[in-house]
Amino acid sequence: MSEPCDFGLIGLAVMGENLALNIESRGYSVAVNNRTTSKVDDFINGRAAGKRFVGCYSIEDLAAALKPPRKVMMMIQAGAAVDELIERLVPLLSPGDVIIDGGNTHFSDTERRTREVERRGLLYVGTGVSGGEEGALKGPSMMPGGSEKAWPLVKEIFQAIAAKVGPNDDIPCCEWVGPRGAGHYVKMVHNGIEYGDMQLICEAYLMLKEVLSLSNDELYDVFDTWNRGELQSYLIEITRDIFSVRDTESGDFMIDKILDTAGAKGTGKWMSQLALDLGVPSTLVTEAVYARSLSSMKEARVSASKVLHGPTDARYEGDRETFVEYVRQALYASKICSYAQGYVQLQAAAKEHEWPLDYGNIAMLWRGGCIIRAQFLDRIKNAFDGDPQLENLLLDGYFRDAIHNAQEAWRHVVETAVSVGLPVPALSAALAYFDGLRRETLPANLLQAQRDYFGAHTYRRTDRDGVFHTDWLHERREPVE
Asked: In terms of Cα–Cα distance, which of 58, 63, 72, 80 is closest to 100?
C-alpha cells in the first residue's frame, strides 16, 4: 500500500490485533508494529491478509507510514514500557500529532504523561477500552480522556469502532470523558463496579446452591429468568451460560471442575485504594477484592475447615420459589448500591482533579460493549439527566423505590446467610452501606470521644459551634473498687 495510513497501532497481542482489525473493518487503513517483529509477519500474513494493513518493523517505519496529523495507539503492557515507548515516539512525530494509550493504565500516569507530551508539542489520549477480546474486535466501550484538542482528531475513528446502542443501534459507547487521566479513572471505576457485580453474583449462586441445593440445570433456568427482567446484563447472561457447559472428557459440568481460587489484575484494588484517599466508602469493591484474596488462600482454608466449625445445616424450610425471588431482589438492591458507590467516588475524584465529568453520559458509555453493560444503566442516565447534581443514586426516585421494595427480601437473605454460616461479604456490605446512609445519627460520636480521650484530637458539638476538647481523665467517674 503506497498511500499513507489513517491510523497506527503498536502492540499485536490479542487485544491489539482485534482492535486493529476492528479499525480496518470500518474503512480505515492501519499501520501496525510489534516489538517482536515476527508477530508483524504472522499478523500480516494471517488474519490481516488482503486487508488495508501495512506491517512496520520499527516505530520509525510506522511513524513514516502515517498521514498527518498522525495518530499512534499503544496497546502494550501498562507501566514503564509505556514511558519508554513515548520517549522513542516523541522525536519521530510532529506538533499536533496524537499519542494514544489504550491499556489498563493507572490514571495518575495518564495525568503525568498528558502534561509531559503536551509540553513537547504533541497531543495525548488515555482511553479506557472495555469488552475484552470480543469487544475489541466487534465494538468495545471506550472512555477517552487527555488533551481535549485531540478529541476531534480521533473522534470519528473511535466512535466508528465502538459498540452501538439505542433504538437504531446508532449511539456509540464512546464520548469524550474529560482532561488528562479522567478517561482511565472512569475505566478503573468501571472495573471496580465489575468486581462488585461479579462478587454479588457469586454470593447469589452460593445461596441458591447451598441453601436450596439447586442443580446446575436449575441454576441455568433461574439466571435465564433473571436475564429477562431488571437484572438483564452481560454478567447475568454469561453466568447463565456457564451453568450449561460440560467438560468434554468427563461429561461433568465444567463449573464443578474449576478450583475456587480467583485471580485479579489490580484495577479493583486501585479503586479501593483511591476511595480511601478520597474518604469515600466504596465498600463493595473493597469487599470484592478481599473476597478474591481470601479465595486464593486455598491451603489455609482447607486447614481451617478441619478446625473451625459453624452451623452444619444449611437447609431452607421455606418456599423455594419465594427464596429464589428474595435472592433476586437482594442482588438487585446490592447492585444499585454498588453503582451508587462508584458514582460517589467519581464525583469526589472529579472535584479533586477538576474534571468536568458528565455522569449521565458515563452511564451510556457502559451501556454496550463493556463487561458491566446492563439494562438499568438507562435508569442511571435518566437520574442524572433529571438532576445533574444528584448527590447519590439512592436518592433518585426510581432507585429509592427499588431499594425500599427489595428491603425485606434483602434482609431475609443476609439473615439466612448468617444463620446457616455462608459468607456473603458483598451482599451484607451493601446492606450496611444502605443502613448507614439512611441513618441521621451514627455512633461516630463515641468514636470522636475516644479519639479525643487518647489523642486530644478534639470534636464538634451538636449544641454549639466550634471545636472542643475535654480532659476526659480528669472529668471521668472513678471506677468502684
From this structure: 72
Q: Is 451 helix (H, G, I), strand (E, B) or coil?
A: helix
Q: How many residues does the chain have?
A: 481
Q: Is 194 a catalytic residue?
A: yes
DSSP at 246: B
Q: 148 by DSSP, 3-state: which?
A: helix
Instruction: Tell the residue number behind the cell numbers 469502532, with chain if given.
Output: 161
- The residue among 335, 376, 311 whose CA lies nearest residue 202 is 335
pTM: 0.94
Q: Name which of 290, 327, 315, 306 is nearest 406 in CA terms.
A: 327
Burial class (CB in 10 A: 0-12, 13-18, 19+), 437: middle
Identify the residue whose cell numbers are 445533574: 388
What does residue 477 show for φ and ψ, rounded to 5 degrees? -85, 130
Rounded to 5 degrees, φ, ψ at 4 are -60, 150
Q: Which of 39, 71, 187, 381 is catalytic?
A: 187
- Pick the catalytic residue: 17, 111, 175, 194? 194
Helix (H) or strand (E) holding 7: strand 7-10
Query: Which residue bears the cell 517505519?
Result: 61
- Which residues face 72 on adjacent strands? 8, 99
pLDDT digits (tens, 9 = 90+) for 234-248: 999 999 999 999 999
For residue 468, the cross-strand partners are 459
> Does the annotation count 321 as an active-site position?
no
The C-alpha cell of 281 is what? 466508602
CA gap 379, 308 in Å, rounded? 44
pLDDT digits (tens, 9 = 90+) for 64-112: 999 999 999 999 999 999 999 999 999 999 999 999 999 999 999 999 9
3-state class (DSSP) for residue 477: coil
Query: Can you tell me which residue has the cell 468502684?
Result: 480
pLDDT grade, residue 169 (50/70/90)? Answer: confident
For strands 53-56 and 178-179, give the pairing.
unpaired
The C-alpha atoms of residue 191 and residue 450 are separated, in whole angstroms, by 37
- Bridge-based pairing state of the strands 30-33 and 7-10: parallel
pLDDT in tens, 106-165: 999 999 999 999 999 999 999 999 999 999 999 999 999 999 999 999 999 999 999 999
Return the CA Rg of the chain.
26
